[in-house]
């Protein structure tokens, strides 16, 4: 029984939909959820050039105050029916730790529950958004040598994100830790990367961080599994890591996606 969706996007997402906050909230109540967190993509760090063609990976910095205000508004409006948290999905970008820490020091006091995610990988000196498109993933394969090298680079970067000093407002949950599998049916890996994943889970556990148990991969045609997969989710759960379901919905109709494929988590 899922009681919380800890990963929801909003109309403030430049690559999302215009669905209103109240539409997401109504859907959450309808689905029987008790708690949700809005985790819009934080503005990308100052000085970082968004490599995707539309340059729409993060929220417009000019919208941030309005976003925080609007979430506070629905939080109060629906407080009898649903516990709503204010969050952001903050990018960890190698080389932009200081900018990210400065941002979190400024806005962290307004945040209840946030996610730290890796979408951008640095390969041969250039940043590529790993999950943007099959072509972007292919570009990473060309730069690193193989699909397996892309996975290794991804896990390595997520491990860095766990270790990174992002200050006292660093998000307590790590986003979709197997996002590098988004195009796995198109560009299969030879290795399961078990050792790297085990190491990643160990550092997450050691820092007492939570895992985003993300349903979005289940509806991606080349992925068709949750992030992380059932086997990894089960290993994490056995280690005592808390997993928090996240629909990663960018439309109200995307809420609860993948929730039927979660393994049973005993409290
Ligand atoms: Zn998004
Ligand atoms: Zn994400």
From TrEMBL:
<keyword id="KW-0028">Amino-acid biosynthesis</keyword>
<feature type="domain" description="PHP">
    <location>
        <begin position="5"/>
        <end position="214"/>
    </location>
</feature>
<comment type="similarity">
    <text>Belongs to the PHP hydrolase family. HisK subfamily.</text>
</comment>
<dbReference type="InterPro" id="IPR004013">
    <property type="entry name" value="PHP_dom"/>
</dbReference>
<protein>
    <recommendedName>
        <fullName>Histidinol-phosphatase</fullName>
        <ecNumber>3.1.3.15</ecNumber>
    </recommendedName>
</protein>
<keyword id="KW-0378">Hydrolase</keyword>
<dbReference type="InterPro" id="IPR016195">
    <property type="entry name" value="Pol/histidinol_Pase-like"/>
</dbReference>
<dbReference type="GO" id="GO:0004401">
    <property type="term" value="F:histidinol-phosphatase activity"/>
</dbReference>
<dbReference type="Pfam" id="PF02811">
    <property type="entry name" value="PHP"/>
</dbReference>
<comment type="pathway">
    <text>Amino-acid biosynthesis; L-histidine biosynthesis; L-histidine from 5-phospho-alpha-D-ribose 1-diphosphate: step 8/9.</text>
</comment>
<keyword id="KW-0368">Histidine biosynthesis</keyword>
<dbReference type="InterPro" id="IPR010140">
    <property type="entry name" value="Histidinol_P_phosphatase_HisJ"/>
</dbReference>
